[in-house]
Amino acid sequence: MPEHAVRRAFADQAIWCERLGSPFTGRLCAVLGERLDRSTPVGCAVLDWPGGTPSGRGDAVPLRLAGALHALVRRGAAPGLRAVYPPRPLPSAAALWAVVSAALAEHAEAIIPWLAAPPQTNEVARASVLHAGLLVVAAETRLPIALYEIGASAGLNLNLDRFGYRYGEARRGDPASVVQLAPHWHGTPPPDGVVRITRRLGNDIAPLDVASAADRERLLAFTWPDQAERIGRLEAALAVAAAHPPPIEAGDAADFVERHFAAPLRPGEVRVLAHSIALQYVPEALRARIATCLAAAGARATPAAPVAWLQFELNPEVGGAALTLALWPGGVVRILAAADAHVREVRWSG
Questions:
Q1: pTM of the entire structure?
Q2: How big is the CA angle at 336 (ends 301 and 135), to the nearest 5 degrees?
């Protein structure tokens, strides 16, 4: 991969971090993109990237390196880095590079393994829009839900019925849950009611295990360090998952969908495929297989055994991410809401 493409990936990621409310990670990515050199094994590994596209829609190289550095800070392994990391004030580019360059040289053996695998995040805030979409499904079918999720990471959002929500002035979900989600809401609230999940199962190409301390720490390290609220949500969701471990299958997303949606439908439940900011990481051929399988399942759907496809994915039509729903019989695709990728603000259209 040409060096200029790698540096461009860091610059682009810096812009996205700024837009998504992480000035520290934005500055870190900008500094790395501008000043990283080949004086360390880490610099060589990054600038001579051997994989595919280094951007966020590909290998996400900037976030791999940012996660590695955050992991060092969280472990207390790099006091120099910790001195400039949040909650300390945002350092200047020069001050940040001084400690980052030292860490790259001193901790190369700890950093390089983080470059070998893509970032793992499990953004809990996305549960708020998925839950709102499932309230629509529940209201329109009046049936319990068999929930399947691809790109589930550690499966934290499979527990979305165990979280509490505030949609404007309306409350939904569990008011006593340690996870309480309250995005800035525009529009009417989603339907009142209860999301009853009778079966749930997730899929990920490389799922994380909520029982593993290393996997939990991996999720926390990839959460941007100046976003304490996100880190708190993640820790709370991990606590819920410790009591209710989400079942996850490892493997190909298309294989997973075909296995579970080609199977006979069960009267008395609605079978739902859900995912959030996941399809961009699925190859186009597999996305086509998923769409074909859902269409075939929808063709077999009946009012007693409906099928739904709930997607929260990037959508240029809304300038961010859109929550869409296709519900069979019928299968008409509706845009229910638009939001940013971290679901800080939601524009609900229902």
A1: 0.91
A2: 65
